[in-house]
Amino acid sequence: MQYRALAVFCGSQAGANPLFQQQAAELGELMGKGQITLIYGGGRKGLMGVVADAAMANGGKVMGVIPEVLIGWEHQHTGITDLQVVADMHSRKKIMYELCDAAIILPGGHGTLDEMFEMLTWNTLNIHNKKIILLNPAGFYDHLIEHIKQMQQAGFLYEDWQKRIAVYETSAEIIAALDEDKS
Questions:
Q1: pLDDT tens-digit profile of 24-52?
Q2: Strand 62-67 to strand 37-40: parallel, antiparallel, or no bridges (unpaired)?
Q3: Where are the domains of the chain?
Q4: What is the CATH code of the structural domain delimited by 5-182?
Q5: What are the pLDDT digits (tens) for 126-153?
Q6: Model-level pTM?
Q7: Could you give the 3-state DSSP secondary structure of residue 104?
């Protein structure tokens, strides 16, 4: 499969570990250099701003989708290729899902998890079948992965969770895996 556009869900804050920003910057750089369009939440703060700035600095195309209610909170990014302001979070997620070929989940908070779990749910319901990739630097998502395993062991998942989520430690590993999928 050819990956022309990737949705990236991540924090509007940078997080406490500098590795989170480093991996966000590396992902943006690799996407920009690889001419993979970044579709993201449209903010200029936190990891969102880091990944968008890195993609733009490396010749990439960046499309932000931000709901009106978040303009004040996330400070919409005006230095990107395109910014769509939408009515609400549901519209934002729907547009991002429709425009992407796959999604990458970086460290983040409640909103990031909401976006990831909605995509997982849509995959399970066959609304779409887009690859979902979890970037797990410094084991950020280890506890969540263990909980998902527990949900499977307790009989609440319809299939092996690893059929729906791929986990990588670095951005470079993600891009290499996507490049392998092309062939």
A1: 999 999 999 999 999 999 999 999 999 99
A2: parallel
A3: 5-182
A4: 3.40.50.450
A5: 998 899 999 999 999 999 999 999 999 9
A6: 0.95
A7: strand
